[in-house]
Specification:
Elements (H helix, E strand, L loop, with lengths): L5 H7 E2 L16 E7 L10 H6 L2 H4 L2 E9 L5 E3 L2 H6 L21 H12 L4 E7 L7 H4 L3 H16 L17 E5 L17 H16 L4 E6 L3 H7 L2 H7 L2 E4 L32 H10 L7 E6 L1 E6 L14 E2 L8 E3 H5 L6 E5 L4 E5 L4 E3 L3 H13 L4 E5 L9 H8 L3
Parallel strand pairs: 2-3, 2-16, 3-5, 5-6, 6-7, 7-8, 8-9, 9-16
Antiparallel strand pairs: 1-13, 3-4, 10-11, 10-12, 10-15, 13-14, 14-15
Length: about 425
């Protein structure tokens, strides 16, 4: 990685937010994809109905509902039956303003998503399979033609045909318009205990093709793809994959985080001057990696974060950037990570700094450092997506936004 002058970085950093040009409306061809998690309704108390209240639902083209799991036999399962299809909702909590009735067939988030589709008929919803804690058995499911066929049949039966355990056949049919594969990661380490094999790379291509074969052209088929070019080359046959995918979403965040000692950016558009780490991780590096390996621009959807990473015990130099720390900053639900809406409530305690050249921002109070993706940075990311003529933006995750949806609003109105 090229090492650049620290003075250039400081010259580019600004305390006062930069006003970016805002077009009147988003271009309809750009996708706006958001992950809604089945744990959002617990401590975060962010329900499906909040997607209506904060304006997200009207701005989204697709929701990825996360996560369904893959069990040791390669079958699809619900990771949380209570949240997915058992929890009753009150009239105040529900999308349509009516309480779930005792004895009704389908409850939970799936029924709320069903009501959401009735309200927004153009909205597409996919079941997202895997995730960090649910990818342990993907390698086994993808291993042979027989295991792939059985796995895909299981997932279609459970999620697309809606045959949920303990409910009448087809109770959830028609809710999902496709499948999102979030295998983290083929042929690379992910969560400890995950099964990985060198042949995952070819087997993932074959698994995606099996999904397309069994699902046909009617359904969306998408995949979440890593940022690291080395992981791309170990686990993904990019050109072949995109022949079967409706689109792919790139990891546009977690470039750095509190698993490292030094503070850094987590979602910069370009490598910042003065970064002491190698290799460079940035959205430009990731997008260029996929384009150079054969991904079509219009099928490449760039991820953006609605959350921050944080460090504490940070040396008070360079406004806290690229400085050693004593560990992760305290977070609302997890050390080292916090949602935008919670950090915004503490904003008066921090100064905002921006690197307009590299395209990222951060917060610092003299000892605690947070990465910072606010409406200014969302507008910047949307303009980058538009300038590069990519297929759109993907959000992890929708529960991080404010009650008035300021992040998705800035993102949506700047996509063209």
């Amino acid at each position: 990685m090229r090492r650049r002058s620290l003075g250039l970085l400081l010259a580019a950093a600004m305390v006062v937010p930069t006003t970016l040009a805002v077009p009147a409306e988003a271009h309809e061809s750009k996708r706006v994809v958001g992950y809604y998690t089945n744990w959002s309704g617990y401590g975060r108390n962010f329900l499906v109905s909040d997607l209506v209240k904060n304006g997200s639902a009207a701005r989204l083209t697709q929701i990825n509902y996360a996560f369904g799991f893959v069990d040791a036999q390669g079958n699809c399962t619900s990771s949380d039956p209570w949240a997915d299809y058992q929890r009753p909702f009150t009239a105040e909590q529900s999308v349509n303003g009516k309480a779930d009735e005792p004895g009704q067939v389908l409850n939970g988030n799936l029924n709320q998503l069903k009501e959401l589709k009735q309200k927004y008929p153009k909205l597409r919803i996919s079941i997202s399979l895997g995730g960090w804690t649910g990818s342990a058995h993907f390698s086994d499911a993808a291993l042979t033609p027989a295991s792939r066929a059985a796995h895909v049949k299981s997932c279609i039966d459970l999620w697309l045909k809606g045959n949920l355990p303990g409910l009448p056949a087809g109770a959830a049919e028609g809710i999902f318009d496709g499948v999102d594969l979030d295998w983290e990661w083929p042929a690379s380490d992910g969560n400890p205990g995950n099964v990985i094999r060198p042949e995952d790379k070819q087997n993932f291509t074959a698994l995606v093709h099996e999904y397309r074969k069994q699902m046909g052209p009617r359904y969306n088929l998408t995949a979440f793809l890593p940022a690291n070019p080395a992981m791309i080359d170990r686990g993904f046959e990019v050109r072949q994959l995109f022949k079967d995918l409706t689109f792919g979403t790139t990891q546009g965040y977690d470039y750095h985080g509190p698993w490292e000692n030094l503070t850094n950016q987590q979602s910069a558009l370009r490598g910042p001057a003065g970064d002491p780490t190698t290799p460079e991780f940035s959205s430009r590096v990731t997008i260029d990696a996929y384009l150079s390996r054969g991904a079509p621009r219009d099928k490449l959807v760039m991820g953006v974060p609605f959350y921050s990473h944080g460090w504490t015990g940070v040396t008070n130099q360079n406004h806290g950037l690229f400085q050693p720390s004593t560990g992760p900053a305290p977070g609302t639900f997890e050390a080292g990570t916090d949602d935008y809406r919670y950090l915004k409530a503490q904003l008066a305690n921090y100064t905002v700094y921006r690197d307009n050249r590299a395209g990222f921002a951060w917060l610092f109070d003299g000892t605690t450092f947070w990465t910072w993706d606010d409406p200014v940075e969302m507008a910047r990311k949307a303009q980058y997506i538009s300038q590069r003529d990519l297929g759109g933006a993907m959000i992890w995750s929708l529960d991080g936004d404010t009650a008035n949806g300021e992040l998705i609003s800035a993102l949506h109105r700047n996509l063209r």
